[in-house]
Design brief:
about 400 residues, alpha/beta, 10-stranded mixed sheet, two-stranded antiparallel sheet, 13 helices, globular
Length: about 400
């Protein structure tokens, strides 16, 4: 069996682009179940890859538990026609149920693994390949396409030495449909949340200005990341982050003493659907929670002697500028400028959102360090689960 697996999360929601229901998980642009979505387009682009050998694992998530069965059936229908081209399998809610049983049997809390929320789904991107015995995980998203030489570039450096250090994590860039690397920018406002695209573009320019193809990076893009097993068995995604789990993973790796690298030639084309995306205020609201949480985590890390030092300046300009003392003031200003009566009705007034974000950060940030300590033990325990491995391999080989 191939030792490299391409893992693709796919997100599904109510038919017709219906508005979110109470209790729905929030994703940027889940596909309505009555639409074809973008997954087949990505798989078609993977069909042009001849070497190196690979398998594909699709992780299926639904915005609401009531949709899980239909989402699994929909994805199974999509991937069926690709089985003659490469080994491909789906991991869905039923598989998670079986996995959780074994995790509990091994003495771990089964709720450590979940199909709800970006970071939890990303952790399954690491756990399931680990059980399968994979050496390298290549993370793509279902709204992308790749060139035929993509995988060769993705694995070119992974596991090798660079400047006396092993390369265990690699990120690449996103291009838009026109081949542009940079995000659209609005006129500057002086507020970091409202100027986020410009700050992200500045980070990209700094990386491009550094000499060489492979450079150390404080950022990554979740739909274009490569993980060696010596990294993904030691470092998890943080279940407490609301979005931006990709960049947060780089921070987690740094705290654990691992470098992360960016390959300037490793690109994917990102083609997100225009319709049914999350509302801009929803994304802003999540960003506020995200960066207040992230700052709290770094403050706690600075007080610990079991993590590597990571000054916030090492993460400049992005995400570093969002992790300074003024993040609460900037967040409040951004929310106030974008709040509408409809959004206030959904999310509460900006002041309440800030207080909720601070309470959540104080409550949840300490949990990450306990989770990070458990992760290597969980992965070591799962490595010996032959029955689970055989079950998953049968899905790939059918």
């Amino acid at each position: 069996m191939a030792k490299t697996v391409i893992v693709v999360p796919t997100y599904w929601t109510w038919e017709g682009g219906a508005p979110p229901q109470p209790g729905d998980a929030i994703y940027d642009h889940p596909t309505p179940l009555d639409q074809a979505g973008t997954l087949a387009r990505l798989l078609e682009s993977l069909s042009a890859i001849a070497r190196p050998e690979f398998a594909v694992l699709v992780i299926t998530a639904a915005t609401n538990p009531r949709l899980e069965g239909r989402a699994e059936a929909k994805v199974e229908e999509i991937i069926a026609s690709f089985r003659s081209r490469f080994p491909i399998a789906q991991f869905a809610a039923g598989d998670l149920k079986e996995l959780r049983k074994r995790v509990e049997g091994l003495g771990f809390d089964p709720s450590l693994l979940s199909l709800r929320g970006y970071p939890n789904i990303r952790n399954l991107q690491l756990v399931v390949p680990h059980i399968l015995g994979m050496e390298v995980v290549v993370a793509l998203d279902d709204d992308e396409v790749v060139e035929s030489d993509y995988l060769a570039k993705a694995v070119e450096f992974i596991g090798r030495e660079r400047e006396g250090r092993r390369v265990l994590g690699v990120a690449g860039f996103y291009l838009d449909g026109e081949g542009n690397l940079f995000l659209p920018e609005q006129p500057p406002t002086g507020n970091i949340f409202l100027d986020k695209s410009a700050i992200m573009n500045e980070a990209t320019r700094r990386l491009l200005d550094r000499p060489g193809r492979l450079v150390e990076t404080p950022i990554a893009f979740g739909g274009n990341m490569v993980f060696h097993r010596d990294l993904f068995t030691q470092v998890p995604f943080d279940p407490g982050i609301t979005r931006g789990e990709d960049i947060d993973y780089v921070t987690n790796a740094r705290l654990a003493g691992f470098d992360f690298w960016l390959d300037k030639e490793l690109t994917v084309t990102h083609l997100p659907p225009e319709a049914y995306g999350a509302l801009p205020y929803t994304k802003l609201h999540q960003d506020v929670f995200r960066f207040i949480y992230e700052r709290e985590k770094l403050c706690l890390a600075a007080e610990r002697d079991d993590v590597s030092p990571l000054p916030v300046e090492a993460l400049d300009p992005y995400p570093g500028r969002f992790l300074r003392d003024n993040v609460v003031e900037q967040a409040l200003g951004a929310l106030r400028s974008k709040a509408t009566p409809q959004m206030v009705a959904l999310y509460g007034p900006p002041e309440a959102a800030i207080e909720a974000a601070k309470r959540r950060a104080a409550q949840m940030a300490p949990r990450y360090f306990a989770f990070a300590r458990q992760w290597p033990r969980l992965m070591a325990a799962l490595a010996g689960e032959q029955a689970l491995r055989d079950r998953l391999r049968r899905k790939l080989e059918r």
